[in-house]
Structure formats: structure tokens, C-alpha cells
Design a protein that fits this description.
The protein has 473 residues and is of the alpha+beta class. Helices cover 23% and strands 30% of the residues. The strands form four sheets. The protein has a ten-stranded antiparallel beta sheet with strand order 19-18-20-21-22-17-23-24-26-25. Strands 1, 2, 3, 4, 5, 6 and 7 form a seven-stranded antiparallel beta sheet that branches. A hairpin with a 5-residue loop joins strand 3 (39-43) and strand 4 (49-54).
């Protein structure tokens, strides 16, 4: 199993400190730089990697170390230096621990996980060899077959780090599935949950009772023919596969009263050199929480203070290629959004999926959803929006057990979609409550509320009935 380690320091690790860290295996190990110097590796005598070190990242957003590592962090700004020991070499883990221990000692800071830096002395590497570099040439890949790339992660929260983002891209380019294997106590960041493609990609959770199961569906898994596949029941048929479900997943967790307000929407802007992106996300954030987002980034941890101009500049520099970013809130009000910005024939599209977490005594402010929709419809070229309430963790992380689906609370159809819909179909719906007009009277968007208790799953029936009606079926 690979080992991830992180040094959290107030000062940027200077070149001499990094060199001292890299000498943790003695002077005989080879050092190589890749990705234009953004990645440094220690190699054995045969040139095979033992330790991969990312360039230090300046984190200017409060709470990211606590959210992703469960670690206490220095006052922002601070430096996040991450290293990853290679698979199957016990001494490589010691190298990783010594590396971050030396960085933390020389620069001043702490090492994660706690206790990893047991020594800052030279690690005995005599006779140590590593496995060959995976064909995908990715530090995060532990097992590579002709079907999938397997990544083993032993972290409190599997996040969309630069390591993992590169692995997602490499697997997609090689037309391979991506399977992430974790211990039972690990959770996923919503960014990773949302990015996992379909079969054969999956989240594989180790379980002492059944061996392995799918962390999102609960299906018991086994390793066969170069990938994790579902275990077939002896009584399975083509019509009824009867996939066994892990007991740990099915039992789930007791309802603690924690809830999430989940909002997904799409805005389509006319292409214009003066266009400023990110304003839609900020408007929703302000309506729901009373404050703007705290930070953003192109990976996790989100390291940059919230800035519409910087986000827009990054998207324009990458155009016509799409841009993906993560947006986070303050620790006091957990919030996380993923934004995908794409240039299309229709203009510039922003696809946003976001959620806010609430404790048992708080309750999601569902009444603010209509104000958020009004802001989008009036100022941000809203195409459509769905609001849900779901029983899920306040910290927004995805646990490896059943949480239950969200329940639709409201749906919004943008003004252009209302205008182009034939007849009066958008206003004459099968719902019990009439839609409410949002935005300019001459060109309104329509807000469709779903009556009843948000915990009542019959809300999905109302939503499906509305979708069939709007599609004319």
C-alpha cells in the first residue's frame, strides 16, 4: 500500500530544506524531476521510483487541512508539501516519514499523519528496490491492468488532489477504468464522488466481514481478471442478478439529524470578452449563507481566496478546453461546489453542483432557495436548477454506507427555455401548486415548488411527473 504524507509549514520549504529531505535515504539514491519541475522523485539504483514529492502549495483558505486530513493547521497562509511513497516497499514509507519530518523540523511546522515522522535520521536503503513505474506513469497508480488503474488511498478523506486529478486524466486517455481502494473508515470528497465515471470505475472499500464492497452501491466485490467485479449470488439469473449487498453498507448510520441542501444548476452566457465567470456561484452562496465563498482552486486543497477575476482569467486562458474548479466555504458553514466551465456553440456554460451542510439543530434554509433562483434568473442566464434536501453529513464528505437519496424541493426552468416551449406547457403543469414567476415579467423564469415534507420520497414522483410533462411525453 502506498503512503501519503504531508508537511504543513508557515514558511515555504526552501531548496536546502527540500534537499535535506530528499537525502533521507542517503546520498546513493537518485533524484529526478518531472512535470517541468513540479514533481521530484527519489529512485533506486535501477531508476525505479521510491518517493514522489509535489511542489509546495500555498494554502490561503482556512479549514482545508481540517476538512481533508482531520489535522490542525497553521494560521493561513501556510504551505502544504505532499509526498507519496511507492507501492510494495516498506522502506519507502520510512523515507516518506523522514522526508516530511525533516521539512517540518527545518522550516517549522507539523507532519501528517501524526506520528509518521518517527525519525529524521537516514533510512537504511541498502539492497532496497522498487517495482517498475506503472505504464500510466502516475505516482498515484498502485496496480495497472489492461482494464483498470487501481489507486490505494489511506486517508481520512480521498480528495481531488493533483495526484488523483492526473490519474483521472491518464486513465481516461488510456480508456481505462479507475478503481479507488480505501480502508473502511475513509470517506470521499464530493469532488471525487462526482468525477468517478461509470463501470468499471468504482470505490472499493475493505471490509472485515465480506472482504470488499462498492462504497456507493454496497455490492460485494471480488478481484477477478484484472479488476474488482461484483460477486454473483449462486441463485443469480440473467433476469435477476441478486447481487449480494454488504451488511456494513446496508446498516449504514443512524439518522443524526444532519442534512444537506443540494443545488445543481446550469447557466449559459453569451460569449463575450467582458464576461465575468463565477458570479452565479457567488450569488447562490450569498443568498443561502449570507456570505461569499471562502476560496477556490483547480484541485484540493482549495488554496486561493475567492476571486471572480482570477477564476475568469484561468478559464479564458484554458479556453477552448474546459475548466474544472472546486469552491469551498468557511469551516463555520460547510459548503462545497464543483464548477465546470465549457465553451459551446450556445455560448459559455457553467455547470454547478453544490451543497451546504447543516447540523440537527440548524435545518437547511430551503426558503432561501427561491431567492437564489431569482438571482440566477435575473442576472446570470439561468437555464435550469434543481434544489434537493437530503439526509447526509454536515461536513459534506461521502461515507461508505447508505445515506438515502435527496428529495426534490424545487425545480426552476430558465426564461429562454420557458419562451421556446410550445404553447403554455411550462405554466400548465400536473403539479398541485402553480409555478411562480421569477425575474422580469416580460421574460420570466418559472419556479416549481414541490409541496409536502422534504423528507417524503414522494417528491420524486412529483419531479418525474413534471419532467415528463415539460418534455411533452
Amino acid at each position: 500500500m502506498t503512503k501519503d504524507v504531508v508537511a504543513l509549514t508557515k514558511k515555504m520549504p526552501d531548496p536546502l530544506s527540500v534537499i535535506a529531505g530528499l537525502l533521507s535515504g542517503g546520498p546513493d539514491l537518485l533524484v529526478g524531476a518531472e512535470a517541468e519541475g513540479a514533481l521530484v522523485r527519489l529512485h533506486d539504483e535501477q531508476g525505479r521510483p521510491l518517493l514522489s514529492v509535489e511542489a509546495p502549495l500555498l494554502v490561503q483558505v482556512r479549514g482545508e487541512a481540517e476538512r481533508l486530513l482531520g489535522a490542525s493547521e497553521p494560521e493561513v497562509p501556510y504551505w502544504w508539501t505532499e509526498a507519496r511513497a511507492t507501492t510494495g516497499v516498506k522502506e519507502a514509507e520510512a523515507l516518506a516519514g523522514t522526508f516530511v519530518g525533516r521539512i517540518a523540523t527545518l522550516v517549522g511546522g507539523t507532519a501528517w499523519p501524526r506520528g509518521v515522522a518517527t525519525s529524521i535520521g537516514v533510512v537504511n536503503t541498502e539492497g532496497m528496490t522498487a517495482v517498475p513505474v506503472p505504464a500510466a506513469a502516475q505516482p498515484a497508480v498502485d496496480v495497472l491492468t489492461d482494464k483498470v488503474a487501481v489507486v490505494i488511498q489511506d486517508r481520512p478523506v480521498v480528495a481531488m488532489t493533483s495526484w488523483l486529478a492526473d490519474t483521472f486524466r491518464a486513465a481516461a486517455e488510456a480508456e481505462l477504468g479507475l478503481q479507488i481502494v480505501t480502508p473502511a473508515g475513509t470517506r470521499l470528497s464530493p469532488t471525487v464522488r462526482g468525477a468517478l465515471p461509470g463501470w468499471p470505475s468504482r470505490w472499493v472499500v475493505q471490509d472485515e466481514k465480506c472482504g470488499y464492497y462498492d462504497g456507493l452501491s454496497g455490492a460485494i466485490l471480488q478481484w477477478a481478471n484484472g479488476l474488482f467485479v461484483t460477486l454473483e449470488s449462486p441463485d443469480a439469473t440473467a433476469e435477476d442478478p441478486r447481487t449480494p449487498i454488504a451488511e456494513t453498507f446496508a446498516q449504514g448510520a443512524a439518522d443524526t439529524g444532519e442534512r444537506q441542501l443540494a443545488i445543481s444548476f446550469r447557466c449559459v452566457h453569451p460569449a463575450d470578452d467582458r464576461l465575468v465567470l463565477g458570479g452565479a456561484v457567488e450569488s447562490v452562496w450569498r443568498e443561502i449563507t449570507g456570505e461569499p465563498p471562502a476560496g477556490w482552486g483547480t484541485e484540493e486543497p482549495a488554496n486561493l481566496p475567492w476571486s471572480l477575476r482570477q477564476l475568469t482569467d484561468v478559464a479564458f486562458e484554458r479556453s477552448p478546453e474546459p475548466t474544472w474548479v472546486v469552491v469551498v466555504g468557511s469551516p463555520e458553514r460547510p459548503g462545497l461546489a464543483t464548477v465546470r466551465i465549457t465553451r459551446t456553440t450556445a455560448g459559455v456554460e457553467e455547470d454547478v453542483t453544490l451543497a451546504f451542510g447543516y447540523g440537527a439543530a440548524e435545518g437547511p434554509p430551503t426558503e432561501a432557495a427561491q431567492k437564489a433562483a431569482e438571482a440566477l434568473a435575473t442576472r446570470h442566464d439561468l437555464q435550469s436548477m434543481l434544489v434537493q434536501v437530503r439526509r447526509a453529513r454536515r461536513d459534506l464528505s461521502v461515507p461508505p454506507h447508505f445515506e438515502g437519496p435527496g428529495v426534490p424541493y424545487a425545480f426552476v426552468l430558465g426564461a429562454e427555455e420557458v419562451r421556446t416551449m410550445p404553447g403554455d406547457r411550462a405554466r400548465r403543469t400536473p403539479l398541485r401548486e402553480k409555478p411562480r414567476e421569477l425575474g422580469p415579467r416580460t421574460r420570466p423564469a418559472l419556479y416549481y415548488p414541490f409541496p409536502g415534507d422534504p423528507s417524503d420520497l414522494s417528491g420524486w414522483q412529483d419531479f418525474e411527473r413534471l419532467m415528463r410533462h415539460l418534455k411533452g411525453s
